[in-house]
Amino acid sequence: xxxxxxTISGKITNPEGEALPGATISLSNPALNTQTNxxxxxxxxxxxxxxxxxxxxFVGYQTTTKTIRLNGSQTVNFSLGxxxxxxxxxxxxxxxxxxxxxxxxxxxxxxxxxxxNFGQDLPYMLNQTPSVVVSSDAGTGIGYxxxxxxxxxxxxxxxxxxxxxxNDAESQGSFFVNLPDFTSSVNNIQVQRGxxxxxxGAGAFGGSINVQTATRRDTGYADINNTFGSxxxxxxxVSIGSGLLGGKFSVDGRLSRIRSDGYIDRASSNxxxxxxxxxxxxxSSTLRANVFAGKERTYQAWNGIPxxxxxxxxxxxxRTYNELGLMADGTYYxxxxxxxQQNHYQLLYDQKLSDKLTFSGALHYTKGKGxxxxxxxxxxxxxxxxxxxxxxxETILATDLARRRWLDNDFYGVTYALKYLPTSNLNLTLGGxxxxxxxxxxxxVIYTRExxxxxxxxxxxxxxxxxxxxxxxxxxxxxxxxxxxxADMQYRRIYYSFLGFxxxxxxxxxxxxxxxxxxxxxxxxxxxxxxxxxASFAVGNHEPNRDDYTNSTxxxxxxxxxxxxxELGYRTSSDxxxxxxxxxxxxxxNQLILTGALNDVGSATRRNVDKSYRAGIELDxxxxxxxxxxxGATATISTNKIKNYSQFFTNYDDNSQVLLFLPKTDIAYSxxxxxxxxxxxxxxxxxxIAFISKYISSQYLDNTSNTNPEGFPVAxxxxxxxxxxxxxxxxxxxxxxxxxxxxxxxxxxxGLLVNNIFSKEYEANGATYPGISGGMVSNYNYFFPQATxxxxxxxxxxx
Length: 799
Prior knowledge:
- By secondary structure, this protein is mostly beta strands.
- It has 2 domains: 6-79, Sandwich (Immunoglobulin-like), CATH 2.60.40; 221-798, TonB-dependent receptor, beta-barrel domain (Maltoporin, Chain A), CATH 2.40.170.
- Helix content is 3%, strand content 58%.
- The protein has 5 helices and 47 strands.
- It has a 22-stranded antiparallel beta barrel.
- The longest helix has 7 residues, at 87-93.
- The radius of gyration is 28 Å and the shape is globular.
- Residues 297-757 form the TonB-dependent receptor-like beta-barrel domain.
- Residues 99-207 form the TonB-dependent receptor plug domain.
- Keywords: Cell outer membrane, Ion transport, Iron, Iron transport, Membrane, Receptor, Signal, TonB box, Transmembrane, Transmembrane beta strand, Transport.
- It is found in: Cell outer membrane.
- It is a multi-pass membrane protein.
């Protein structure tokens, strides 16, 4: 018996019974350690009989030790309690909703991300969360992608990485293409819907995405990840980590590249990125330095496909046609590309000051520089401030040319949070940030077909902008019996300097100062540890973007947007079912919308609409149908309206503006139903088959609900040309995963993702520019078709 070989195995979970992938389990005599797999399981083999001490640890949880006497193979499970202090969690929790927060949110774990990460952009990792719609310019989820939450686009979705704003300070969008394969360095994500909790950066008008990057791993590792798929897609990722060195230090790194031809013609992507993180762990503090960067070169596909092309079945490539870069000789300009690099530097410090008080602070700096290059046929020289020249007796007024439009920007600042827990029933947080942005916008003419008398890289415009963003917030939660009271107040001050039109239509440097107060309050009532109801009210304010300022005068400049958000919900969790239901009513004041009207400088910029709202119900849940079978689903049913809306159509016959007034109309890009489903079956240990579906109902491309001005018939009968509308679509994917190990390799993961398995032809996004010509309404529609059936296959090796 003494010479027999035995096994110790088990599972490590949190107090809610959820698996903890990547937790460390150590064994004494002999000294061995390993990490749990994606299901939270571990195993030690070839052990002799005798006494052993096992220690389980995971960042954010209390370390637990058990001693056993081994006389045969045993199962030893651990349930780790939450730590009273976890240094690396302080920064993130300052801007996150907690378990009992009266806020609609979804948490996505590293395990969930690993299942879905085949190299597509980060928005596609969130596609199965409630009220989310994603789209891809190239049609494959690689390159430029977009996300909407509750119908609000990316400029109204606040994104932070370790509490640091990611949204561009001027356009307010988040361009995930600048951080390719970022998912491979993410530990977890929280998606909040509505105004949510106070956070840093742009106001959350549809939702917020709070990302935490990789945290401590106590055991050294090396991972190799390769993905191959349709449209020439290749992803190569190498990740390495030292584990905990001397009990105090760790270093982690990742290097990635992604290449894809895209579904749309010439919508290619050539992407590279890296992530390096080094940390020092003291007894009650952590200092972490993150450096990550991405470089992208994508052929432009952002104009979509005209309706008259996509509707013409006689055109072989009608669904993949890309006109950008077309030259006079019928060939395409090879450098019709977007070329941009973004480098991020973060220094994160967390400190336990006492048993009741913790502090977190961060310094950050982001450097971005790049351009988009485009070919222009017979472009007027006057547009570029170039005096027409005479060549061989002919005055050249226009010529074919190529131009680059540059953005060279710097973004830096500090964020902080103090968290005070005087009693077990009360916690208080004081946080905030000061961030500064400096952006240089300029353009060069780099080529002209005929000599225009200019030198190389002739600069035809320059616009420098600066933006200071300060905020401070305080938040408290007080538990009284079974109820938890929540209050949150934020003050935000913005100073923006820009080149724009003054009241005399002179283009001069100007500035604007905005002050916002964003209060929030709510209550959660716990029936027991597994069931609660909540209600909340929150106010959000959102500033106009760069174009709103630069393309207007002080007289026509739009006002900031205001949102009052009411939420009411119920959450439940058990071993069999976990889910919730949420009702929302989002009341907007001065929402900014393109109405077709021209302002006093002749620009069709966004205008404020007095009253609009979004109201709906969100459902999400996951049920364990059997030991190996589970089903998760979400559904959002909503109504999204503008009251007393005026839309203007340009009448090109006489250059007048024709008014269409609607007492109530639908908000553009706001489907009334969004649903998702994931059926997951595990036929063998380490294996999974998932059938994933998404349904999006029809949505309008503008705010007219397809209504036209009275007396103006539609110019064509084709459904694409006649309608300013995106048709609804139902798309299904299949995902296969199998993980196993060998003596030499800790984990071998094989995956296959078949997207759009039924090869549905559909468009996920579009735009419209309606006008009146020849006495009839002409809808200039552009759509973004998504790829038909395609696949991505991956092989992952972990050492």
